Amino acid sequence: MAGAQDIRRRIRSVRNMEQITKAMKMVSAAKLRKAQLKLNAARPYASQLQGVLERLAQAPVDIVHPLLKERPVQKVVYVLITSDRGLCGGYNANLIRKTAGLIAETPQEVKLVTVGRKGRDFFRRGKIEFLAEFVALGDEPSYNQAKQIAQEVIRLYEQGEADEVYLLYTEFVTAMTQRPTQVKLLPIKQPEGKQGKQYIFEPSPEAILTTLLPKYVETQIFRTILEGKASEQGARMTAMSSATDNAKDMIGRLSLAMNRARQAAITTEISEIVSGAAALE
Fold it and tell me: Which residues are catalytic?
């Protein structure tokens, strides 16, 4: 059994670790609140864009646009959104596992666009071709960053580097629950128009669509990045909370072991004294 002094050093080490994980939990909680605010603001905007697309679908004209054009699927691109840093539980591992499974099941040629270091570093060890990578978006990614990614994805699609594009990200449900999710991004499926009000568009539906569809791609990518950031902070907060609780339990067990070691040392010392006294008689 380790001596009381050794156990005391281990307790100090674990207590320092507890303070670090507790601080990281508090930081993640603050970042999560900010991420949720941005996500809650982005979700209605994406929904409104979808509504505009539905109204455009009711226009009595045939709308043609490169981002709506479907073609035989020979090349599939996955846009994988992970974090730049670890210490966030199974957040990255679950999404990477889902992506690896999708790649294995996809009969067509698969290529990757990665957002975040963790996904990039994992798949870089394999034989998957990378078309683009984006890292260091920070804890509060901007719309301009999402726009740069969207422009690259649109370019790849329009130049025939991809026949289908999917977003792979983690949907934020609660701080305790995050869901790896796959969403088809391109070609954009034109919503079926519902019978109802007829809208007059100024300028023409074609002109509106030319501006709206790239904006729709940008918004979808921005929303999924925000979903990922909120999920990352929620997962990290939960992981650090568990680590803090484990450190407390370990300190309790070590304290008990230290007390036992101290009692054993006292018992040994008393036994030696008694033995010495008996030898003098």
Answer: 88
Q: Is residue 22 part of a domain?
A: no
- In sequence order, what are the beta bridge partners of 146? none
187 falls within a domain: yes
Q: What is the CATH number of the domain that holds 64?
A: 3.40.1380.10
> What predicted TM-score, i.e. pTM, was given to this entire model?
0.85
Q: What confidence tens digit (pLDDT) does each residue in 247-269 have?
A: 889 888 888 887 887 777 677 77
